[in-house]
Amino acid sequence: MYSIIVVPPPTTTDDTRTAQLRLAPGERLAFGRGAGNGLVIAHDGVSRRAGEIAAQGAFWILSNLSREQTYVVENPEGAGEHIKVAPGRLDAPVPFEFSRIVLPAAGDLLPVEVWAPRHDYLRPESGLDGVTTAPAFSLDPTKRYFAVLAALCEPRLRGAPHAPLPTVDQVVDRLRPGWPAASRASVQWNIDYLAVKLRLKPGPETADAGPRLNGKKESLVSLALRFDLVREEDLGLLVPGRPAADRAAG
Question: What is the per-residue pLDDT across 207-235, written as a single tens digit (0 to 9) for each?
Fold first, then answer.
């Protein structure tokens, strides 16, 4: 059963690509300018033995066989999230489901996409005794604060990982079709409430309020996306329409 899919870089100026390569667990794929039976990348700036990809069940590992060049593996869905694999590093595990190896090649940046779509899950156990584990983050999708959080996360969940976050006014504009009473004050109150609820800052009942939380919206969105507190399917809770940031730019 194949678990890893490798998408080679473009081979011509029209961005056409060769066929995808599929690896089963335990299989390895060499890549480079002289990779032979592996993935041949015909570019003078790529080492003859540039590296190797190995499938390991539901994830993959990368070996950098070059002598001097660091490789970057990007998460296209992760707002700049990436790992670096140093020259000579062997079997570096890659944690991203969708990844892009960026190979610097004599002034060019060649992308090799690697997908790991297979998911293995623990089978649920029944009949366990004891107290139920408390949830790490308790969020109610029916509450106004969740709609505010979804609106903040929307631009990046729509496939633009580096998109600027919407302003408070843009969130108000986005939520008003389903929440006519939305205002700057109510949206800002919910943002402050989320910062306390998600433990990004102490609550007002504490004696010491702690330092001011700078970049509050960025911190909320980063936490929500990192731990899947808001998913793409949650955007269905918002009234259909273009994200507010898009409307402001259009």
Answer: 455 555 568 899 999 999 889 999 999 99
- The tokens describing 138, both together, are 């308790």
C-alpha of 90 from chain center: 24
Sheet with 28-32, strands from edge to edge, namely 39-40, 28-32, 51-56, 59-64, 92-94
Q: For 171-215, how does the pLDDT look when each residue is reduced to its tens digit (9 = 90+)?
A: 999 999 999 999 999 999 999 999 999 988 776 655 455 555 568
Longest dimension (CA), the chain: 68
Which one, of 38, 65, 61, 40, lies nearest residue 51 by Cα?
A: 65
Residue with tokens 């108000």: 172
Q: What are phi and psi of 242, to 5 degrees?
A: -70, 145
Sign of CA dihedral 8, 10, 12, 16: positive
Q: How many residues does the chain have?
A: 250
Closest C-alpha to 23, from 50, 48, 60, 51: 60
In degrees, to the nearest 5, what angle opens at C-alpha 159 toward C-alphas 156 and 160?
55
Question: What's the burial of 186, exposed, middle or buried (CB within 10 Å: 0-12/13-18/19+)?
Answer: middle
The pTM of this model reads: 0.61
